[in-house]
Amino acid sequence: MFTTALLSFALFAAALSANVRRDVAGNGGGPGPDGKYTIEAPGIRAKFIPYGASISNLFINDSRGVERDVVMGFDNASYYSIDRQHPHLGAVPGRYANRIKNSTFELDGMTYHILPDEHPMPGYPNGTDTLHGGPDGWDWRNFTVVAHTTDSITFSIVDPDGKEGFPGEVVSYITYTLSNMTWHLKMVAMATTKKTPIMLSSHTYWNLDGFQNPNTPLVLNHSLWLPYSGQRVGADGNLIPDGTILPNQPGSVNDFWSAPKQLGANFSSPEALGNCGTNCTGYDTCYLVNREQDGPYDWKETLPVARLQSAWSGIQVDVYSDQEAYQVYTCGGQNGSLALKQTQGFFNDSSRPRVTEQHGCVVMEVEDWIDAINQPEWQRSKKQIFEPGGDPYVLEAKYVFSLNATKTPYS
Q1: Between β-strands 110-113 and 152-159, what pairing exists: parallel, antiparallel or unpaired?
Q2: Cβ neighbourhood burial of 37 (10 Å; 0-12, 13-18, 19+)
Q3: Which of 13, 137, 365, 404 is the most exposed place for a label (fewest CB within 10 A)?
Q4: For position 16, what pLDDT does the model report?
Q5: Sheet of strand 54-61, all strands in order from the earlier edge strand to the far edge
Q6: How far is residue 185's CA from residue 148's CA, in Å, rounded to a whole number?
Q7: pLDDT below 50 — which residues of the chain?
């Protein structure tokens, strides 16, 4: 039985599915010369693009009163579809975020084969696994702008039956809203024709110094706190979940729950090697969010699921989410080939090339347990499998910014 909200969304989905033309609602003024849509609120300003429903710029004044652009992206919206090296910059990966083992899953006795796009090997030139929904996942496609005001923007997408191998059509809308020093996002998706897996996220790359810390271009001195994450998903050398749930022992490389610590604090530990895949030092790790221990909770009122802070800029972001996992990636795959935006970094300084270096950023993804569609014993089907007439998939998060809100010994 549809609630009023579900019925409204169903009608909206049907209109989009039928390719009914919709004019952009709101008074946001449309895209600027750079092809980006700007929204703003007190203490915060951001730019978004239809490609991947991506955030492209996020401006916060630091403790010195200097505006810093704290997320990665390109200078012009047109660059995203041209430069195919971009690593899902600020986008919404879908229809299933993160990895799918062997690019397959079973649903109601049927085996579905999703297009692979990761870990090629002899005989499998396109890869052996699927990352972020496949080679033409949502973060590689243009969404439709359906509403744009001065402080909010909504994108929509219709994902056809069979696209990338997934069953059934999915209709989704993504809404970003700014308020006082806060970025709020809401993602809603509905299966309209067949039962199908859905798991979304925001794949935003962060550097809270705007790559302008004169002491380092890296984020390894950013401090991270994950107060509910005493466990993580075990994975093999290709970062594919192996079915285990592992403890983050106090004081270990993966312990961010007992106290905040710098991202690079344990990089010299032997335990750090291989922590983000074979021969990789750092993090590309799915941490579980265990709030149920405190009884019934409102995700907007608990502790944040994550807190990232730069003592140099003074910028702190507290991440609140209704999701039950949190992926942290310290950009070990960056190699200096991705250019900074004109709003970031230094000019005329040969010692600081205008690129993103390895560990120059950190990705933090709110999401559910990764590859749970291949781990039925985790019992995540109600969180990840959706069908026509049922409840929609919903993800909400808010990123609350502050200055020097938490004292740490880090610099």
Answers
A1: unpaired
A2: buried
A3: 404
A4: 45
A5: 37-41, 44-49, 54-61, 67-69
A6: 14
A7: 1-5, 7-8, 10-11, 13-21, 409-411
Q: Which residues are catalytic?
A: 203, 365
DSSP annotation string for 47-80: EEETBTTEEEEEEEE-TTS-EEE-B---SSTTHH
Q: What single letter denotes the amino acid at residue 204?
A: T
Residue with tokens 């935003």: 204
Distance CA 308, CA 58 (A): 15
Provide the 8-state DSSP code for 29.
Answer: -
- Predicted pLDDT of residue 1: 42
Token pair recorded at residue 317: 């972001």
Residue 404 CA to its chain's centroid (Å):
25
- Please state the pTM of the whole predicted model: 0.93
Chain-centroid distance, C-alpha 140: 14
Residue 99 CB contacts under 8 Å (≥ 6 apart), including other chains: 118, 129, 130, 131, 239, 240, 241, 370, 371
**How many residues can be counted in the chain?**
411
User: What is the rounded CA–CA span in Å between residue 196 and residue 173?
Assistant: 17
Question: What does the block give as tokens for 246?
Answer: 């592992």
